[in-house]
Amino acid sequence: MKKTLCLLLVSVLLLVSLLPAAAAGDATPPENAAALSEDPTTSEPQGTDPAAPADDPTEPPTEPVTEPAGEPVTQPEEPSTEPTEEKPEEPSTEPPAPLLALRLNEESVICGVGETLTLFVTDETGDRVPVSFTTDAPALLTQTAVGVFLATAPGFATVTATAADGRELLCFVTIWNAPHEITLGDEEVTLGVGDTYEVEAFLPVGTYSGSLQYVSGDESVLFPLGENRFYAISGGSTTITVFAQNGVSESVSVTVLPLPDEVTLSDDALTLGVGETYKLSFALPEGTFSRSVSFQSNGAAVTVSKTGKLTAIQKGVAIVTVTAQGGAAASCTVTVKKAPKSINIPALLKLNPGDTYTFTPKLASSAGAHKLTIRSDNKKVFKQTDDMTFTAKKTGSATVTVTAYNGVSATCDVQVCKLPKKLRFASSRYQRPMGTCYAPEIILPENTYCSSYSFTSSNPDVASVDETGTVWFRSVGEAVITAETPNGKSATCTVSVTNIPVPCVSQLPRYPTGCEAASCTALLQYYGYDITVDEMVATIPRENLVRRNGVLYGPDINKKFVGNPTGSYTSATPGYGAFSPCITKALQKAINARGGGHTAKRISGCSFKKLLKQVSKGRPAIVWATYQMMNPKTKNSWTIVESDGTTRQFSYPRGTHVFVLKGYSKNHVTLMDPYTKSNVTYSISTFEARWNLLGKQAIVLV
């Protein structure tokens, strides 16, 4: 357009330059009508013959005609008889306007079959320029309007845009088949509220779609952020559908869950060795989701990666915290110890075919290792079935190796043997005191083994036997113990249970009422303490009765021995006794004075069954009953003054006596009687009644 205007302007300027010569009023017209202008470079008029003679200077000059005043008189021009020579056009002195650059909106483009391509040309100012378009492959790319083309078949085409001035612009077009399907990166995806999600879409090789459209099925659940990005607004289920330009589509199912309100870790606490690594895993409540979690350690002992991998750096303790989106968190306390230098497992293990065994490796208390690996070198004989559990498959041998993370290891020699066809106890008869235990040895033929016996006792109240073959001697009497193998072979032995060997200690002749001190002495001597009755008497605090204003006053029998143990009930300074709280303290004082490790434990008030259970465990007990289990008929009374000045009356049953319970059977109890310095036997029911009468008082050492 601008070029056209410039050409018109040049033409107008040339026309205007001719007008003064054509309209001149000279009386003498130029000799050559073509001489309309002079060449500024020469004095000779253009269009004349230089050889022609000059005007005669002798001729008088033509006088001008003076016109009378009034209307001007116009003298007619004589028509020229000479041919008029056309004057050549002078070149323009102004430079021509420059051409504006043209640009095609696409120089190289890819499109799919069925898609439309629109082309246009603009100049450098951005204005569109009218052009014509042609294609060299109309069978592939059909022009449906000026600059509008429809891709009809795959291939290559060139579109030429031709401007009015003849300039050409080219666009190279590659046409691919339209996609027949869309493949998405996910078939289904779970998001948490607040998550963003980008859809990945892929077209088959050799296909093309000019654009893909991403649509949310429910924008109240999943809001589009533009292109292929979406934002999870609230909980719910929806889809994202991707459409190609030809209408082909594919969808991904999206579930948006609420953020978790808690996090559960695989370990609340664990121990690692220096240099060990461990993957800490976590779980969220069902129905919740967190796109990401963060891991953080608060100490130099442990580092943790973004994925929860722990690395023990140095000895110490660190707390590793896992935080989910929304702030829910959980922590694991990690203790880092020295790397192990040894592992403790059985050196030899014997089993029968079909047996299972679980290893429990031990490390030094100062060493740590969370994970230990274990393997068998002969899986046909001894096969691993779980983390540390193995099964004996057939007779033979195998070596099991346990290895720590730092390469330290230990081995176990495993021998799988056949069951015996016969067996026997090392002895046919065993005798032990009650309260003790013993595992009788079983003898088997050579090259046989039994890993599990079935043990029974003919009288469990006297002697019971556990699954390991350990016999517990519980009460005085006899019992037969039977051991049976899985293949039905058996052996028996007889066990005899005796009383606990508490020594007999006498309170006489020096201490007629000193049964408490003598019983304490016997109990302490049984446990190996070097003590005499005199020393024990001196250990027990005591206080005599006094009469004031006709009233008999005395101490609290739970705190002090009442009277003098050297006296009888009828002596001038009689002796009565002391109850279990006072004697418990005195016993502990005697133990401590001798550097002992036992504790005097008062079990007063317990049931009779629990009392007997203590004895069956091998713990003789100091007990309060009556002399010869008689029912006391006479009571001595005195007044006790409390620390706050108040008084109360106390009645003491005459005949109270203290023993050491050292054994029992189904119907009887055996007591060490310090008054007779002998073991005495009473009906179990009578003893229970007298023990109850004296307040169920008892003391044992633990």
First-residue to last-residue Cα separation: 118 Å
Number of strands: 56
The number of helical runs is 6
Q: Please state the average pLDDT score.
A: 87
What does this structure look like?
The protein has 702 residues and is mostly beta strands. Helix content is 10%, strand content 38%. The protein contains six helices and 56 strands. The strands form 18 sheets. A six-stranded antiparallel beta sheet has the order 49-56-50-53-54-55, with helices on both faces. α2 (515-526) packs across α3.
Keywords for this structure?
single chain; 702 residues; mainly beta; elongated; disordered N terminus
Summarize the structure.
The chain contains six helices and 56 strands.
Please describe the topology of this protein.
Layout: H1 2-22, E1 102-104, E2 108-112, E3 116-118, E4 121-123, E5 131-135, E6 141-145, E7 148-151, E8 155-163, E9 168-176, E10 183-184, E11 188-192, E12 196-198, E13 201-202, E14 212-216, E15 222-226, E16 229-232, E17 236-244, E18 249-257, E19 264-265, E20 269-273, E21 277-279, E22 282-283, E23 293-297, E24 302-304, E25 309-312, E26 316-324, E27 329-337, E28 348-351, E29 356-358, E30 373-376, E31 382-384, E32 389-392, E33 396-403, E34 409-416, E35 424-425, E36 429-433, E37 437-438, E38 442-443, E39 454-457, E40 463-465, E41 471-473, E42 477-484, E43 490-498, H2 515-526, H3 533-539, E44 542-543, E45 546-548, E46 551-553, E47 561-563, E48 575-577, H4 580-593, E49 600-602, H5 608-616, E50 621-626, E51 635-641, E52 647-653, E53 656-664, E54 668-673, E55 678-683, H6 684-693, E56 698-701
